[in-house]
Amino acid sequence: MTEPSRQPDPDQSEVAEEPEPKERKAAKDAEKPALSGKRSARPEATVTNNLRFKSANLYSPNFGISAPRRTVVALKRKADVDAALVGYVRPRCFDNAVSRLRTERVLPIEGRTGTGQHTGSLAVLREVVKGDLVPFSPATSLEELRTYKYQRGLGYYLLDHTVRETGAEAEFCWDAICGSVREGGAYLVITTLEAPKYARRLVWERPSLDSLLDSLLHDAPDNATDGLADRIPPDWSLTDIAEMCRRLRLNQDVGEALGVFDIAAADEVNAWFDSPERQWEDFIEVAGWRLAGAPRPAPWSRW
C-alpha cells in the first residue's frame, strides 16, 4: 500500500537562515579555548617608542614621538685653519675675545654679516688651541650641545647658529653647556646674528679699513691706493674689500675695482625711496617683486 505523500502546510512559510554577523562570530571564536600543544605561527612583537617630552613653546614646538638625533660634527685640520688665517687682520676686540675664551672656555660672538666673525672665531681659537678644530652644524640645538662629549684640549666652533631657544629652560641648558665644556677641558666658540640675553656675548667688530688695505695691498704702488679709503662706502664688508683688492692686484682701474660695491645702483635705490612722490602702493609692489626673486633694479626701473 502506497503511503500518500505529505503536502507542505501552506500556513507555514520557509524562513531562510540568516548568516551569523561577523562581530558575533569573532566573539565566539575568541571564547574558544586554544588548542594545546600548538603555538601561533606569528611570534608576539614588543614595540617600544622613544618618547621625548619638552615644555610647550609656540616658537619652537616639539610634539609626539621622535628618534634620538645624533649631533653632526666634522674636523677641520690644522693645516686648513692656518691656510684660512693667512694675512688675517685682527680687529680691536680680538684680544678681549682671546682673554675671555681662555678664562671662560665658552665664547658667544654676536655680529652682523660681513664683519669677519667667521674667520675671527677660527683666529681666536687658534690662539688657545694649536691643533685641529671641530665644527658643529649650524642647526645644532642647545640640548645636543649640552649632551655632547667634549674632548680635552680640543677647540669647537659653531658658525651662524640658527637655533633660537628662549625661556627658563633654554637658560638652564646654556649654563649646562658651559659646565660640560669646562668639565671636558675643551673650548667652544659660537657665532650668531643676535645672541640671547642669557648668554654673555661679545659683540664682534670689523678691522679698521686702513689696516685691511695695508695688509691686502702691501705690494701695490703707492699711487694705486691714494684716496681709496675715502671712496669706499661706510657699510663695506670684508668680502667686498677682499674682492676690490683682488681686482686692483690684477691692475684694474680704481673705478672698475670700486664697482664691487655697486655704488651707482645703491644711489639709485636710495633716491627712489627718498622721492616725495613715492606712495605706499609702490613699496608694497617692490616688496612683492623681491619676494618673487626679481633682480634688484627691476622693481623701480620703470618708475
Short summary of the structure?
With 303 residues, this protein is an alpha/beta fold. The protein is built from 12 helices and 5 strands. It has helices at residues 22-31, 78-84, 94-104, 117-128, 142-147, 168-184, 209-216, 238-249, 254-257, 263-274, 280-291, 298-301, and strands at 106-110, 133-135, 155-158, 187-192, 202-203.
Structural account:
There is one protein chain. The protein is an alpha/beta fold. It folds into 2 domains: 126 residues, 3-Layer(aba) Sandwich (Rossmann fold); 93 residues, no CATH class. 38% of the residues lie in helices and 7% in strands. The protein has a 5-stranded parallel beta sheet. Strand 2, helix 5 and strand 3 form a beta-alpha-beta unit. The protein is globular. The C terminus is likely disordered.
Q: How many separate helices?
A: 12
Helix fraction by DSSP (H/I, runs of at least 4): 25-40%
How many β strands by DSSP? 5
Q: Can you name the CATH architecture of the largest domain? A: 3-Layer(aba) Sandwich
N-to-C CA distance: 121 Å
Order of SSEs, N→C? HHHEHEHEHEEHHHHHH
Biggest sheet, open or closed, and with what strands and sense?
A: 5 strands, parallel
